[in-house]
Write a structure and sequence with these properties.
The protein has 288 residues and is mainly α. 72% of the residues lie in helices and 0% in strands. It has one domain. The longest helix has 31 residues. The protein starts with 13 loop residues before the first helix and ends with a helix.
Length: 288
């Protein structure tokens, strides 16, 4: 006798129906689409897990270190000459805002290397997967953009509320004292590139291989370190990263690209910097 066809039972009660529509149905759809025998191997899964761990390790102990940022800043200033010819100790003779901005750019470039370049090389040459598997295809981006716009609205409201807190103003922007609108825009451009790289790593590299083995549960693996990288930031932001990481992970799997996540991440980050500078009356004092 053949197996009996599984009968799906509709959820009862308005709360369960809402939960099923908003979340559970999407989790089932992810499993049905991605979990397939032979789609990946244990070796591939282990590669992603250990490469991810090493990327996060090197970011924490190398890129976030003051010594690296000083070394990288000297490389950009002395060797590449981004501010022109410099005599003497470049970090002592240059204007403080140039030194600060260069160190922030060094941080951004380090993040881009470990979040983007290393996973891209592993994905393309070791796992032998196309780069579109990292969620880089723009297909469907504008179709789903309204979802991210709706998500941004309440977050923007929360940003404005917490911008009154001293801890928030002491944290953002990372480039603390922009010298002019031009230097601020330069920083924000590198800041955005860092978030693009971050999305490639967390919502692309960490999910693409694991989704074939674990389905939607791959989001849980990605969400945990994503929350932890926010521990140095204000507590409410670290708490919000749990929800944000989960939502963006599920959306990346459902929409098959990371561009919505990049857009909302950059929009939130820019709004946080803007709100902090506004609260500190920076726009009244800056050079136009």
């Amino acid at each position: 006798m053949g197996r009996k066809k599984e009968v799906k039972v509709a959820p009862s009660g308005p709360i369960m129906r809402l939960l099923d529509w908003a979340l559970l149905s999407h989790l089932r759809a992810i499993d049905e689409e991605y979990v397939k025998p032979g789609a990946t191997t244990d070796g591939r899964v282990l590669t992603v897990v250990y490469v991810s761990c090493m990327v996060l390790f090197l970011l924490n102990y190398l890129v976030l270190s003051h010594d690296y940022q000083v070394w990288a800043a000297r490389l950009l200033i002395d060797t590449l000459g981004i501010w022109g010819p410099v005599t003497g100790d470049s970090l002592q003779t240059l204007e403080p805002w140039k030194v600060s901005l260069t160190m922030r750019i060094s941080w951004s470039l380090g993040c881009m290397f470990f979040y983007l370049v290393i996973p891209g090389i592993v994905h393309l040459f070791l796992l032998k997967r196309p780069l579109t598997g990292l969620g880089l295809s723009p297909r469907g981006f504008f179709k789903h953009l309204w979802i991210y716009a709706l998500l941004f609205l309440p977050v923007a409201g929360c940003v404005w509320v917490v911008s009154y807190q001293e801890a928030f103003q002491k944290t953002y922007p990372f480039y603390r004292y922009p010298d002019s609108i031009q230097s601020l825009l330069l920083w924000e451009a590198f800041y955005a590139l860092q978030f693009f790289s971050l999305e490639v790593f967390f919502r692309g590299f960490m999910l693409n291989e694991l989704k074939h083995k674990w389905g939607w549960r791959a989001v849980l693996f990605m969400m945990t370190p994503y929350c932890m990288i926010h521990f140095s930031k204000p507590g409410l932001e670290a708490l919000g990263a749990i929800i944000a990481g989960s939502v963006l992970g599920i959306l990346a799997l459902r929409t098959k690209n990371i561009w919505g996540g990049v857009t909302i991440h950059v929009a939130v980050a820019w709004s946080m910097d803007f709100a902090s500078l506004l609260q500190r009356d920076w726009f009244d004092k800056m050079k136009w």
